Amino acid sequence: LEQLEKEIAKPDPHRIRLEKKDRSALVFKNLSLCRLDGIVCIESLNEEIKPGDRVLVAGNAFTGNKLFKAIAGLWPWGEGVIELPDEEPLFFMPPRPFLPTGKLRSAICYPSSSKDFGQDDLEYALTLAGTGDLIPHLDEIGDWEKNLEREQQQRLGLVRVLLQKPKWIMMQEAFDSLDPEGEVDMINIINRKLPDSAVLTITKQPTIQAMHKRRIVLN
After folding, report:
1. Fewer beta carbons within 10 Å, N or C terminal of the chain?
2. CA neighbours within 13 Å on the CB side: how many for 171?
3. What percent of the chain is predicted at pLDDT more than 70?
4. What is the spatial distance between Cα 21 and Cα 168, in angstroms, rounded to a whole number?
C-alpha cells in the first residue's frame, strides 16, 4: 500500500503540473500543450508575467483558449509547469460571462455575495461600464443570460471585474460584441482602474492588440 501511494504521488511527466508559489508571478516553465488527439499545439513555452503586465496572447485563438484552461486547471494534457501566485485568485473573462438566474445584483456580484458590495459601488461600476440603465432593475429576478443582449452581458463582465479588483485577469474576447471604439473604452477603464493587475488578453481587434506592451505568440 505504501509503495502504491508513492506511485500515485509521483508527478506525471505527460500532464501539466500546477504549482502555487509564495510570490506574485504567473510562470510558464517548459510548458507544452497537446490536443486530445496528441498533437502538440504549444511547445516549450517559457514566460514570466508580473503584476501590472499587459500581455497579448497572439496566434491561434483556440490554442489560447487551451492555455487559459490549463491555467485554470481544466486542461492537463501536455507537459511542463505552470506556477501560480499563491493567495491571489485568477479572474477569467470569457466571451459570455456567467450570469446565474436570480436577482440582477446577485448575478453581477457572482461569485461573491451581493452583501460584499455597497449600492454606491454597484451604481458607480454600472455607470462606468455604460450600463447605468440597469440600476433600477438590480433587485429584479430574471434569467439574465436570456434577458440581456450580449453587449450588455459583456459590459457586466467589466462591472464584475471592477467590483472584484482581481490581481490576475484572463480576457478571452471579452468585449468582442462591442464596436472597436467601445472595446477600447472597456480596456482603458481596466487599465485606469486596475493598473497593478496583470492582464492576459486574447482578442481579434487590432486596436486592442496594439495596446499591449508584451505578447506571447502561440504557434
Report:
1. N
2. 32
3. 94
4. 14
What's the whole-number mean pLDDT along residues 126-143?
Answer: 97
pTM (2 d.p.)? 0.89
Q: State the pLDDT at residue 2.
A: 53
**Per the structure block, which three cell numbers stand in for 91?**
479572474
pLDDT in tens, 18-64: 999 999 999 999 999 999 888 999 999 999 999 999 999 998 888 99
Pairing of strands 141-142, 102-103: antiparallel
Q: Are 7 and 150 in contact (CB under 8 A)?
A: no
Residue identified by cell 494534457 is 77
- Beta-sheet pairing, 54-59 with 102-103: unpaired
What's residue 5's pLDDT? 46
Distance between CA 141 and CA 121 in Å, rounded?
20
Higher-confidence residue of 38 and 82: namely 82
Question: DSSP characters for the chain?
Answer: -HHHHHHHHSPPTTBPEEEEESSS-EEEEEEEEE-TTS-EEEEEEEEEE-TT-EEEEEE-HHHHHHHHHHHTTS--BEEEEEEEETT--EEEE-SS----SEEHHHHHHTTS-GGGS-HHHHHHHHHHTT-GGGGGGTT-EE-HHHHS-HHHHHHHHHHHHHHH--SEEEEESTTTTS-HHHHHHHHHHHHHH-TTSEEEEE---HHHHTT-SEEEEE-
Q: List the grid coordinates of 193.
A: 482602474
- The mean-pLDDT minimum among 11-20, 30-39, 129-138 falls in 11-20
